[in-house]
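Chain and backbone:
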Amino acid sequence: MIKTYFYEDSERKIYSDVDLGRKDEYLASPENLLWVDVFNCDDLELNYIGKVFNFHPLAIEDCLQLSPRAKVDKYDGYFFFVFHALHYDEEGEDEITTSELDVFLGQNYIVTIHKRPLAAVGKVVKQCLKHHALMDRGPDYLIYSIVDAIVDDYFPIIDRIGERIDELEDELYINPAQEITDEILSLKRTTLLLRKVVLPQRRIFASVGGRYSFTVRPENQPFYMDLADHLERIIDATDTYRDLVNNALDSFFSVLSGRTNEVIRVLTIISTIMMPLTFITGLFGMNVPLPLPEHVSSFWVIVLGSGIISASMLWFFTKKLWI
């Protein structure tokens, strides 16, 4: 599906669903802005957009294939971006998934391409239709608005991961069960994927005036600096959570090892105490005559001796602080 939004600067008005056949007419004035949003599209629609704007075939090919990393490529007369939105479902099979957003940035147009509707794009569309201020500031500000909405959706995910780590640390020493291991591994995968998505995007916006950056109007640069700061905060939080999860995993194995050693120590003490008793009962169980067989209490003497031996060993283990 192809949706179009055209900002006519002279009229200070936004038109939707305009005819792309008049693209050159719309873009005749550098103050005008054309936004083409393509979603749930097929190859024919993408190729059509590529012909209308004369996009490079390699850029169209990138739109047809999933790109695992955010990037910016410079072509003749426009820039091509790849961003990623995140979808978080704690109860789903895949806890966190990504949606790719491809963006073409020209002098006075942008083209956004995504496989499924994105909440961030829909939010910006509503703001544009409500007021023309977003499109009046140029295409670079419009891209900022879209990416900023995507980044804002990262923060609830970060907050929820922090809450889960706190719950994990509380549960770790109370009930170190198999579910704890599953939770730790799930958090490790989530933090790694989050870092993999956010880190390349931070590099794009880290230095707007740098060599590998794109054209940004001076009045819009403070917004990109703020966006880079948000991404930096997310990266810092992700690195912190990754370290906390790794520490939690080490603590889990330490607690598990300590409890295992405790069980082994108890079993070892029981086995050690039973050894002399087993020897005595085994010895007199091989048709060996009991001492003082004519004495009525000979059996109880052996039982009492075995009890004394066991009590003496328990006293010795306690004195050595082994139990």
